[in-house]
Amino acid sequence: MLMMWNKAREMAELAPPERNRWVDFLRALSIMAVVSGHWLVAAPYIDAQGTVQGGHLLGILPWSQWLTWGFQVMPIFFLVGGYSNAMSWSAQLRKAEEGKGGSYADWFASRIQRLINPVFPVLLLWAGFAFVATQFGMDRENVKMATFLALIPVWFLAVYLLVTAFTPIAFKAWSRFGIWSFACLAACAVLIDWLTLARGVPYVNFLNFLFVWVGIHQLGFAWRDGRFDSLPRALAWFAGGLALLVGLTVYGPYPIAMIGVPGAAITNSMPPTLALLALGVTQAGLVLALEPWGRKMLANMRLWTLTVLMNGMIMTIYLWHLTAFVLVMVAAWLLGGVGLNAYPGTQAWWLARPVWFALYIAALLPLIAIFARYERAFGPVRDGRPVPRARLVSGLLLICLGLAMTAAISIASPEGITGVRLWVVALPFAGAALVGFGPLYRWIKARQNA
Predict the structure, then answer these.
(1) How far is CA 133 from CA 138, 232, 313, 321, in A?
(2) Is 0.70 surpassed by the pTM of this model?
(3) What is the spatial distance between Cα 340 and Cα 332, in angstroms, rounded to a whole number?
(4) Are residues 375 and 316 in contact, defined by beta-carbon separation less than 8 angstroms?
(5) Which parts of the chain have pLDDT scores under 50?
(6) Which of 281, 369, 409, 435 lies at a 20 to 30 A Cα distance from 50?
(7) C-alpha closest to that of 209 among 221, 192, 224, 196
(8) Alpha-carbon distance values, 275 to 241, 245, 257 (Å)
(9) Is residue 377 within 8 Å of 121, Cβ to Cβ?
(10) CA torsion through residues 399, 404, 406, 409, sign
(11) Mean pLDDT of the chain, nearest integer
């Protein structure tokens, strides 16, 4: 870890003075909030019959659902993504104007690689676990539960890739219509929720994965263009978003919880709803109102170095934090259920949280040390040649389908010899190969060159 800190220190010192450090800080903060939230709400315990129950804090303690207004910070990640994509896509357009390349295929292929490269190890490890556990006769439902829980985070990458794919269109809309491009997306989200809640139209709510998240991504464009530089304006967005959020949840039909709660009729996150969009506006207004203070705070080199360090392993932390959770839970179960006898929400359970969090961090650190290098192991896409548009789109769809199925139905199979849904595992690898990177692509190239 000392070596990683020293490397981060070097990178922090090399950062240009004009870099907006608040962007990097918010990216790290949002992922850490998601990690902490997952570790908190997942609350397994052993009941009076000695059976392990998969407790969920939000279902056990309804008041804790209010906490999701602070822990559900994926909107901040999409806000930051909009800012960063605006910067990088603008640079790509300038390259094109100067005749230095700058194609969409090159730009997007590199983003796919950066996001998906760290996914391959965690997919392979859990596919291997499902296979071995099945061969040794472990109950398939337990295999599926462990695998499903550990790989929940991959859903986000599928959505984020789709949102990023729309960057050129969204950026053009922003350049022409400004904040009205956000308003149009918000109106579409309203229409979708009306069709879903008032008219009962099935499946149409899945369109809000685009309307809500692209809408918040659009606010990142506004941030990059200085539309939130005024403190009163940022606070007005915060106040307006908060008023709408309270109206929709406290007095309206939407639940308080910003993530799914077992047994709830409506979920605000899967797919996202107008309430989650309101939360995104609230959070955007708040963090952008705090930006001047935050940028001064990050002038401290130790804090800035920590931010750089976290951003250098951010995908590793996100992808492996629930694997660390599962490892700790399995260890506790093998030790006779030590620590799992406290019922979630009791005083004893809350007092034990710091100990459990320390154990999760201890289990996560070796995983970071082993797998963080995959965030930096980038080679040229298709050996530096442009990726054909058809292959790029096909690869993106295969990757997103594989990640979505991993989160929705698990890679563990309830039947078959292997105990693994091999087609689900194969989809992201095949998609990456079409784009021109990844283990399968390297294997194919090696076979061709043999």
Answers:
(1) 5, 57, 29, 21
(2) yes
(3) 7
(4) yes
(5) none
(6) 409
(7) 192
(8) 9, 6, 10
(9) no
(10) negative
(11) 90
DSSP per residue, 66-122 = GGHHHH--HHHHHHHHHHHHHHHHHHHHHHHHTTS---HHHHHHHHHHHHHTTHHHH
Q: What are the tens digits of pLDDT across the range 20-33?
A: 999 999 999 999 99
Cis peptide before 292 (omega within 30 of 0): no
Burial of 224 (0-12, 13-18, 19+ CB in 10 A): buried
10 Å CB burial of residue 406 (0-12, 13-18, 19+) is buried
The SS3 assignment for 225 reads: coil
Single-letter code of the amino acid located at 207: L
Domain ranges of the chain: 2-109+153-310
CB 59 within 8 A of CB 6: no
d(CA 314, CA 158): 17
d(CA 9, CA 403): 34
Instruction: Give the 3-state secondary structure percentages of the chain, helix then strand then coil, rounded to 5.
Output: 75, 0, 25
β-bridge partners, 272? 269
Token pair in block for residue 214: 């692209």
Amino acid at 155: W
Token pair of 432 as six digits: 């990456």
Hey, what amino acid is at 35? V
Return the residue matching tokens 């129950």: 53
Rounded to 5 degrees, φ, ψ at 50 are 80, 15
Q: By C-alpha distance, which of 316, 317, 298, 318 is closest to 308?
A: 298
| Token pair 């450090």 in the structure block, residue | 21
What pLDDT is stored for residue 381 in this prediction? 73
Which of 376, 288, 370 lies closest to 25, judged by CA?
288
CA 396 – CA 178 distance, rounded (Å): 28
Please say whether the beta carbons of 216 and 278 come within 8 A. no
Q: Are 109 and 392 in contact (CB under 8 A)?
A: yes
pLDDT at 50 (0 to 100): 73
Q: Residue 87: exposed, middle, or buried by beta-carbon count in 10 A (0-12, 13-18, 19+)?
A: middle
How far apart, in whole angstroms, are the C-alpha atoms of residue 450 and residue 448? 6
pLDDT at 126: 95
Q: How many CB atoms lie under 10 A from the CB of residue 142?
A: 13
